[in-house]
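Hi all, a correction to my earlier message: I attached the wrong file for NADH-quinone oxidoreductase subunit N. Here's the right sequence:
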Amino acid sequence: MNWADLNLVPAKPELFLLTAVSVLLLLDLFISDAKRGITYALSLLILVITAALQVMVAEPYAIYTLSNNFVSDPLSTVVKLAMYASTFAVLVYTRQYCSDRGIFKGEYFTLTLFALLGMNVMVSASHFLSLYMGLELLSLCLYALIALQRDSIPATESAMKYFVLGALASGLLLYGMSMIYGATGSLELAVVAKSIASGSANQVLVVFGLVFIVAGLAFKLGAVPFHMWVPDVYQGSSTALALMIGAAPKLAAFVFVLRFLAQGLAPLVADWQGMLAIIAVLSMAIGNITAIVQTNIKRMLAYSTISHMGFLLLGLIAGNADGYSAALFYTVIYVLMTLVGFGILLALSRAGFECETLDDLKGLNQRNSWYAFLMLLAMFSMAGIPPLVGFFAKFAVIMAVVNIGLVWLAVFAVVMSLIGAFYYLRVVKCIYFDDATDNAPIVVRADMKLLLSVNGVALLVLGAIPERLVALCLEAMKQSLTAL
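and the right structure:
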């Protein structure tokens, strides 16, 4: 490393986050359970300061530092800010839920923030090893978070399944990376791309490495046929952790895939397009069809997630700036929808009661018409019904594949979207047309109620004026394409 050229300014948010979480970890040792709200408040403050630092160091072009292991570009800035906002919302939404279940502890906050640090590294990595280090930091934190309920057999089982399958996926990824290194002699994304494009790399070894890398990436996204962990982990873990897994990590996983395929392996676009097309078709089909028969709503949303990952891949298949920006837009909207859907489940859960089945949502409109309306917005948006923003997200990725001539894939996506609308509308039917089976009062903290309301209404507002967010995603992607 050339210490004279070392520039730590672009990594200032990550350095602050690492330092702050380490200090929080030590401070929490002296905070009793009765005063755990202090840890909660400090965690939110850390998120706000990190986001402010991110805005301060933002530049309209890519800056490489740490021997080209770290890149700060408009894409990473937009995604990191979305991850900070998502993590902030997750902490607010899960406060009461975690308190009722005895997991409102320092470990919950520090592991969450360390997971966020791992996501940041994934988003800004420009080297295979830094990508992998970020991924493993995130994964290890998620394994531990899921297992926080040590007395819960389903949670422990979910953590073990996630750990074993995650280790397998990491092995596939590492094996693929080793093949790429053997073929090109480098692990730096830009150097690998140049080596492959120039023809100096061993093409057979590169293609074999690509197969293993795509398999590992598909697991991290939860796409078919590497989706087995998703429904079991969503159902077995607590609702708070299911929300954690389904929110900010999806943003990091999207950029993770983009760095690998659109930056390091861009010259092989013709090879990975076909592989992603198969994965997208299987994900949309199996995700939507299997979700129809689910009665556990967390498991239903897990299969819904699998189908959404199939739609997200449509943008990546396009292999151009418009497609990548459409996929980024879709990922941001997916996270917004997930926060609302799981937020309502958290609001309806209470000490001794888990809102997990469709029956638990029956008659929600009779109990609280506002929460029923927010859940309706989330379900309609996930189904892609206008004027909700989910419609424009699906339209964007479908148009991306139409523009490159894959009309059959666009038609298939539309058909799968129609099939998926069934189980989303079934949730709405339970909320509005069935009689309530539980008449207990819904007690929600004021901060959660306000943030959840803003989150839900945003789905409607962004549906009315999606242009600004679409333009922001497109501009960020185009400005970063010099590095991609």
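Sorry for the mix-up. The radius of gyration is 22 Å.
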